[in-house]
Amino acid sequence: MAAGRDLLDRHWVALTLLAWLVVAAWSLADRWGQVRWLSLGDTDDNMRLMQVRAWLDGQGWYDLRQYRMNPPAGFDIHWSRIVDLPIAGLILFFRLFTSNSWAERLACGIAPLLPLSIAMLGIGATVRRLIHPLAWPLAILFLVGATATMLMYMPERIDHHGWQLAMLSLTLAGLCDPQARRGGALVGIASAVSLSIGLELLPYAAMAGAIIALRWVWDRAEAPRLAVYALTLGGGSTLGFALFASNANQAMRCDALTPVWLSVMIAAGMLLFLLARFGPASRGVRLALAVAAGAAIVIGFALMFPQCLARPEGVSPELQRNWLNNVREAKPIYKHSWRTGVAIATLPVIGLLGALFAAWRARRRPSAIGWVAVALFTTFAVLMLLWQVRAGPAAQMLAVPGGVALAWVIVPGCSATARCWCACSAQRARW
Question: Which of 391, 382, 386 is nearest to 348 (CA)?
């Protein structure tokens, strides 16, 4: 038994990837009908495939104009090539063995499952750091049971949401990483990659930055985390813009990583780096400086880019009233049926309660600051449901650590296993 527990601890990454392979194989078998008939879920998935086809047929790397829309001039799609890469790579690989038709079907079936492996590793690392080294299998079970989250990873769901959720899982792992520089770099890089894909998770990226700044306000020793985060956020966003921003996104648009948001990320990175580099000893002064930096970013954005203070899509009032305001997933959770609301919000609420309980329980332990960060992030995710129900997949995924924390205390055998593992480890150390 001790050997088995040691195996779970030492080889958790390999075992997590093995679990991912099992889940991926089951998902492909369960949805083979959709894969066989290339039954893409919605218009965004179909548009993603059109974008990949155009690229493989010779359209330029930075040319994301879709000529099937608004012919003959076409219509600019404000996405990036990041999510196109694995789909195109799989198509080219399967072309070596089968027809182009089947290569596309297999690629669209497998590609959405790839970021699920990253999400499993990110959530697993979080619970290992905060709960116990053997808690990661329980986290995988909770994640697989998060239905709204898992829908973003189902075969044929080739839009970019799965990759953004994967980056969000790495952000969570970085927020609670006890190694300051590694944690700051992970949050900064994950945020930059997510923003380079799309702006859907911009509020979460901003909240992650605020949490890191608050850690520095509370403890000046967190300056290395803040400094590395600032550098990786600004540098990563710049690199993402240079490598993946389309020709259309060179303009001052508001709905993608354009010069508008790139300047915000660079300015935020510079200000946060200066705070970390020259932060005073007084906690009150650090708080005042952090608030001033945040206010400077908000005021500067409002003055320089007033066109982005309304809806980022820049649509007409008529189109907003007749279309965007009626999109179901863009409505708050309380405007949906109670069945839908309960199904989406149950896990996030449980996870929030669990994170708050774990933070209180760990108040005298080194893991307390990590749990506070997770609790703040989970609270933010739950509140986002009051804005748009499309926040459900992110809220459910971020609730997993809190849910595991409750299960680790309530479920018989979890705590006993942990105590036994710790005793065996101590005994081996004495030997």
Answer: 382
Burial 38-77 (b: 16+ CB within 10 A, else e): bebbeeebebbbebbebbbeebeeeebbbeeeeeeeeebb
| Confidence at residue 424, expressed as pLDDT on a 0 to 100 scale | 43
User: What are residue 40's phi and psi, to 5 degrees?
Assistant: -75, 145
Residue 60 DSSP one-character state = -
Residue 11, C-beta contacts closer than 8 angstroms, at least 6 positions apart: none
Instruction: Report whether 148 contacts 393 (CB < 8 A).
Output: yes
Query: Closest Cα to residue 236, out of 265, 208, 256?
Result: 265
pLDDT recorded at residue 74? 86
Residues 6+ apart with CB under 8 A from 177: 129, 183, 186, 370
- Give the pLDDT confidence of 210-263 residue by residue, as tens digits: 999 999 999 999 999 999 999 999 999 999 999 999 999 998 988 899 999 999
Q: What is the DSSP letter of 113?
A: G
Kindly state the average pLDDT of the residues 336-364: 93
Sign of CA dihedral 81, 84, 85, 88: negative
Q: What percent of the chain has pLDDT over 70?
A: 92
Average pLDDT of the residues of the chain: 90
The pTM is what? 0.93
- Structure tokens belonging to residue 171: 């952000």
Q: Which residues contact 184 (CB under 8 A, 6 or more apart)?
A: 174, 212, 224, 225, 226, 227, 228, 229, 230, 232
Q: Residue 76 forms beta bridges with which residues? A: 65
